[in-house]
Description:
The complex is a heterodimer of chains A (336) and B (332). With 336 residues, chain A is mainly alpha-helical. Chain A has 15 helices and 4 strands. Chain A has a two-stranded antiparallel ribbon. Chain A starts with a helix and ends in a 7-residue tail after the last helix. Chain A binds chain B through residues 3-4, 7-8, 11-12, 15-16, 19, 27, 30-31, 34-36, 39-40, 43-44, 47-48, 50-57, 59-60, 63-64, 66-67, 70-71, 113-114, 116-117, and chain B through 1-3, 5-6, 8, 10-11, 13-14, 17, 19-20, 22-25, 27-28, 30-31, 34, 38, 41-44, 46-47, 50-51, 53-54, 72. Chain A: It comes from Poecilia formosa.
Amino acid sequence: MADKEKRRSAALPSGMSSGKVVKSDSEREFLEQAGVGDLLRGAILKMVEARSDDPIGFLADHFCNLASVTDSGTAGCGDEDQQQQQQQSTGLAGAGAHEQQRLNRALWHLRLAHHSQRSAFSNNVRVAYDLLNLNGCLRQASENPEGPDGSCLDVPPDAEGSGGVKGGLYTQTLECLCSEGGVPASTSAPLLRRLCCQDHEAVPYDVFRHGVLTCAVFSDYIRQAQRLYAEVCCPDEGPATRALCSAVLGTLKEALETSQDCDANCFVNANAKSSACLEANAKAIRYLEASAKISPHKLAQAMAGAQTRGPGGNMDAKEFENAAADLFIARVKVVS
Amino acid sequence: MNRLSSAVPAEQYLADSQVLFYLNDAVTQLLDHKEEYTQFGLVRYFAEYFSSVKNSNHVLFRELNYIRATQHNRASFIRVFWRCFRQIGKSGDLLSVPEYRSLLQLLCPDFPLEAVQSASRIVLADDISDGLMSFSDFIYAFQLQFCYQEFLDSVQVIYQDLLAGKSPNTVIVPTSSSVEQLVSVATEESDREEQQQDAVDSSTLAECVDALCERFKHSCPSRTCLREVLEQTDKVSYYGFLQSLANHESINQTIGALPSKEELLIDPEMDQELDKLIAQISVSPGSNSSGSAIGGLKEVQRRASPRRNIHHRRKMEVESDGSTEETDSSEN
């Protein structure tokens, strides 16, 4: 971080002095007063964290986002409390629009980092949650500090009495994540049924995080499945043979089962801090095993095996996608 | 999202994105026009600046150095030029080099003549002082020349070396200083008529050019494209080579500023406007005091007038509303 700051301040004077004869102090003062340095530093850090493919577009969105936040009043608790009280008098329309705006902003935050970038993704989920959480500021004091695997911590149910994201908003967020990730509504419906919460419920942070993470992973998974199907099936020859598809799906299933076990271990050992290190290793090994099962070599073996057995008709892309989705969804915990 | 982003170090990512350059320019502009830009707040200023960069609206009326600084800026400039002046293509007018330069100067006050001359050589390949070019021919040649200028200069040096009979092994990939010296010699020579008949062996040129691509990375046409063009003939002349490149669709697509040749002159909004006005005029022919028709006609002329005497009107038109649709009001 320090060298980024250096670079920013180094870039600034050099850029200016090349254009002007003398770099005036009044200009530097002006910039300092206006807080330009902090603004730009924050923007650059966000940009480098997100590593978007379109850095300029990212910055444009970032500043526009920021501008709309400052324009529309703050996202602070004051307004939201007032809003809650006034909800009956101002009518639901105003609140609905405001909510939509918050949802959009939260989604924007969630899109910033890929779920494989653990810390960045966790930060963004936190920000999104706070945005959507009506009573966020009041609850800050009582929040549990976030561990590296938030979903593993057991949070006592009573702590959520006074706040949490509205169930309806939470479900909407998940729906948007899935559709943005390229998953058709029919495929994601069963997943959402497992993850969703009632409209009136207050969703605690780790449920929120679990849901968001699952949807993000699911979108990737479906995209992978689609790609897998495309590899297996040659478009000119029509849909791929059923046997081949089943073989591929079987490999997927095995891989998921292997990684599932390591999640289970994680839950069991959550409170044993001393064995945290061992746990991490065990997890890593399990993930490696799982990825080995899905390696091209294994897949090729499975496919070769399938071709010797008699084909039983064809499987088209949609069916393949649904079957893959089922495998995944079967492993998702139902939110209760 | 770039999943392999951890492989790219932060400095590299920053450098490749050229964001620091744009931030530098944004702050410089801010300081130059403090009162104007701080009216709506700093955040809004940066939001508008970067939105205009993203939408390629940022190069209008900027100085040459800014426009040339990044590939994105160059491509944006081509696009702006196209949007402002495509009506010329529709009218079928042929313009000369100084005329095209005047048009360019409307968009960029310090646009140099040499760049226009180099572009026109791609189209005309011989004595360019009297040559007339169609809009469509000119713009594709100009695009190639403007976006890949440094690369093309180096290619020319290589070409001259090959022509002079040096074997490919001794053809050194020129450094920037040597290019400057040799290009000035090369352009003098190429004005002579014999030059057009000269040609070198395509495959040799292809080898040398391929080596050049290493150095230029994103500031040159793709290797496959270059190879394709050079495979078409056994012998190739420099301007023949450039002509093929200029008309090559994949180069056009890579730069991304212009549509394909068939769609270059399509401008549905303008067509609608003109149709409306023509309808109005034909209803009240030879109108003298018919305010709306005259007002309408003046408006058309204000927006895009491909008449001979375009320069004065063009200046008014461009300065008042810039390109046909989006103009970022925060820019000059």
